[in-house]
Amino acid sequence: MLNEFKAFIAKGNVVDLAVGIIIGAAFTAIVNSLVADLINPIIGLITGGVDFSNLFFDLSMTEPAYTSLAAARDAGAPVFAYGAFITAVINFLIIAWVVFLLVKAVNKLKAATERKEAAAAAAAPTGPSELDVLLEIRDALKH
Asked: What are phi and psi of 32, to 5 degrees?
């Protein structure tokens, strides 16, 4: 059983998956930082500093009303935190756009590399095929 486990772990797919997960986690940190530290402040500047994440309805209907979502949650009040949902949707759209642009750039780079490799392969001199050589030998032996 130990040998089977070693063979399973040594398979390329498992190693590729592990590498993909590790790179994905690192990439997630980069994209989250890009969105939170660079893009969201610009959006906040454009929208006049509107912070959707603190928008909520207090479902407990207590008086006085809670002044912030954090205060309502700390008090254990039931809240309908629609602002947090709006913020999550906006962040998702921004992250999806950034990932789209990165994948598009990588695909463009990959296509350019493939074109260069194809051009190099086409420019490389090719000799006669094995069939051509055999046909020449056959024809030479006929004479």
From this structure: -60, -40
Print the SS3 string covering 85-130: HHHHHHHHHHHHHHHHHHHHHHHHHHHHHHHHHHHHHHHCCCCCCH
Q: What is the pLDDT of residue 16?
A: 79
pLDDT at 12: 64
Vertex 105: Cα angle to 15 and 37 (nearest 5) = 85
CA angle 88, 94, 97 (to 5 degrees): 140
3-state DSSP assignment of residue 71: helix
Residues of the chain with pLDDT below 50 are none
